[in-house]
Amino acid sequence: MQIEKLDTGGTATLKLSGEIDLHASPALRAELQKCAHAKTAALLLDFTAVDYIDSSGLATLIEYVRESSAYKGKVALFGLQKKVRTIFDLVRLNELFVISSTADEAIAALAAK
């Protein structure tokens, strides 16, 4: 997995690529912890190039939601491929996360939240 961080006007975006599994989750956790320590108000996770996510990856994302709730941080995911989106739907994480098709839709959803 690779992570590229972009900051655009108060919204941070983590562009993720590859597989988010047991081996990649620690790197994602470290990057998300940096965002939590910086009290990132709005975070977008770009899943366009993510092929797979397992339970350790899902747990890492849930952990960030818990940490960011302390300072009312918002997070949205966008660009999920069908098989990745199915995983979120099966475990009902589509109820916890804002999930959108595009970055613009994700930003609009966070603004409305």
List the helices and strands and how they pair.
Blueprint: E1 2-8, E2 11-20, H1 25-37, E3 42-53, H2 55-69, E4 74-78, H3 82-90, E5 98-100, H4 103-112
Helix pairs in contact: 1-2
Provide keyphrases for this structure:
Transcription Regulator spoIIAA; alpha/beta; 5-stranded mixed β-sheet; 4 helices
Textual characterization of the structure:
With 113 residues, the chain is an alpha/beta fold. The chain has one domain: STAS domain (Transcription Regulator spoIIAA), CATH 3.30.750. 42% of the residues lie in helices and 33% in strands. The protein contains four helices and five strands. It has helices spanning 25-37, 55-69, 82-90, 103-112, and strands spanning 2-8, 11-20, 42-53, 74-78, 98-100. Strand 3, helix 2 and strand 4 (74-78) form a beta-alpha-beta unit. The chain is globular, with a radius of gyration of 13 Å.
Counted up, domains total 1
Please indicate the percent range of residues in DSSP E strands (runs of 2 or more): 25-35%
CATH topology name, in short, is Transcription Regulator spoIIAA
Mean pLDDT: 95
Distance between the termini: 30 Å
Radius of gyration: 13 Å
Q: What's the level 1 CATH class?
A: Alpha Beta
Going across the major beta sheet, what is the strand order? 1-2-3-4-5
Tell me the structural class.
Answer: alpha/beta
Number of helices: 4
The tally of strands reads 5
Q: Considering the protein shown, what is the CATH homologous superfamily?
A: STAS domain
Helix content: 40-55%
> How are helices and strands ordered from N to C?
EEHEHEHEH
The parts where pLDDT drops under 50 for at least 5 residues are: none
Biggest β-sheet: count, sense, barrel? 5 strands, mixed
CATH architecture level-2 label: 2-Layer Sandwich
Sum up the overall morphology in one term: globular
